Inverse folding.
């Protein structure tokens, strides 16, 4: 059974940093690109970032480009999202996703990030 | 990349059918048969209901059907049931420079 478990969310002040982690199991992690999607309270889904199988290729939405860094450790079956210079607008539930839009799409339960002073 | 456009809310009575539309552009929905639909209940993670425009994952009811015409994709729910009340999001592949884009979301209410 595919499992994606996010962690690392919490309360952070504006301008602060957080690192989210996503522990994957139940599939061959290093065979799949991985993604982060977020959802602000009461809002829709926003496609945020992606990393290739090897980690050598990445994508960022304009809203986080230059502030967030996606990475992966295939030896640990773990996906990361390093978030810096956080803003109130970054407050959201962050989901780790395998296979966005594909036949075997799986989402984690999400981790909540709150940005407030 | 702008979000795909969906009607904010739709409603129907149990047993009825309803259709949700998702309008994109020739750069996303119109270019690729890679439209998917997600169902999200409050406080839960999205669940895949349709992929590649019209295919259903194993375990998803055949009451859910997807289609596409030009730059607009559609999700039809047949025989509406109380458990179908949720938010629905479309998603389209949009090319290598902007891999995916989501729709604005549609709240389905079962009267």
């Amino acid at each position: 059974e595919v499992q994606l478990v996010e962690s690392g969310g919490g309360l952070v002040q504006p301008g602060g940093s957080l690192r989210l982690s996503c522990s994957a199991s139940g599939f061959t992690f290093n065979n799949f690109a991985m993604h982060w999607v977020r959802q602000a309270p009461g809002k829709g889904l926003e496609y945020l970032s992606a990393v290739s199988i090897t980690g050598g290729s990445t994508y960022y939405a304009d809203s986080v480009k230059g502030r967030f860094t996606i990475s992966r450790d295939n030896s640990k079956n773990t996906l990361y999202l390093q978030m810096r210079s956080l803003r109130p607008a970054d407050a959201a539930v962050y989901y780790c996703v395998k296979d966005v839009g594909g036949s075997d799409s799986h989402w984690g339960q999400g981790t909540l990030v709150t940005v407030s002073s | 990349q702008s979000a795909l456009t969906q009607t904010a809310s739709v409603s129907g009575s149990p047993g009825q059918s309803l259709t949700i539309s998702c309008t994109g552009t020739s750069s996303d929905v119109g270019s690729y048969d890679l439209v998917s639909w997600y169902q999200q209940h409050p406080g839960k993670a999205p669940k895949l209901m349709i992929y590649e425009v019209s295919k259903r994952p194993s375990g998803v009811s055949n009451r859910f059907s997807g289609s596409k015409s030009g730059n607009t994709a559609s999700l039809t729910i047949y025989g509406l049931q109380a458990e179908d009340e949720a938010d629905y999001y479309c998603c389209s592949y949009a090319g290598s420079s902007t891999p995916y884009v989501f729709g604005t979301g549609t709240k389905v209410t079962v009267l």
In short: Chain A has no helices and eleven strands. Chain A touches chain B at residues 35, 37, 44-47, 50, 59, 95, 100-105, 107-110 (CB under 8 Å). Chain A has a mean pLDDT of 96.
